Amino acid sequence: MIFRLNLIADLLWPPICMSCGCIIPIDYSRDMALCDKCSAKFSVELQSLCPKCGKQHVKCRCRPHNLSGNVSGCIHVSRYTPWESVTNNLILRAKDNNYKYLYELMANESAKAVKKRVPDYRHAVITYMPREKSKIRKSGVDQSKNVAKLFAKKLSLDFVKAIRRIHAKEQKGLSSKERLENAFSAYRLNKKAIPSVAGKTVIVYDDVLTTGATMSAGVDILFRAGAARVFVLAFAMRYNDRMKPTGDVDVDISDYDASDEFE
Fold this sequence. Notes:
Elements: H1 2-12, H2 36-47, E1 62-63, E2 73-79, H3 86-95, H4 100-117, E3 124-128, H5 133-139, H6 143-154, E4 158-159, E5 163-165, H7 176-186, E6 187-189, H8 194-197, E7 201-209, H9 213-224, E8 229-237, E9 244-245
Parallel strand pairs: 2-8, 3-4, 3-7, 7-8
Antiparallel strand pairs: 1-9, 5-6
Helix pairs in contact: 4-6, 7-9
């Protein structure tokens, strides 16, 4: 019944590529967030190398300079570039679009990264950095929540709303120091989540890592809630010259397969 409803919806409103905007032929055997051309470009972006350490993104252990040194790992799926890219387009579309195939793609890639980089991930819990309420009201979506909730389901992990956001200034346009101060004033612990977080490995998700200020605020909150370990995960990271290696737990990811899929 659900399949039929989805098919009817797709026939009435054909899926479009979330990067270039072209109409995608209905084919449930493949991902329908990207057309073939953009899908090929995205695969190249996933396989590209970190400009600092020279490793593939899923293997890169560099971290933004403002990110807390207490994290057990800093993970990202792709790179947010100064030029137009499929990765950039996916992130921008996700901020204002509740398109199911888009979130499926982002969740699948995030889940694959977790499997490869978080030791004993099956006992972890998933949370996220919440979006500003005014933006949620305007767009109707909290993209990080949607992706985190979906990849938690794909990995059969608990999803917890451990962090809440209060009013704060936009991070955009602030200096590195101002970003850090602003981020720590913008987030608070959801006390109801403490029993779900205490003593656990927690993976906190956000769509983009820039200076690491926002994630540091989240990491601090989770440790104060009693988390045993915290891994940060972003769909993309913006590289800069002040990035440094992270104290990642050593995990064998030599068998990484970009074609790995989730049901």
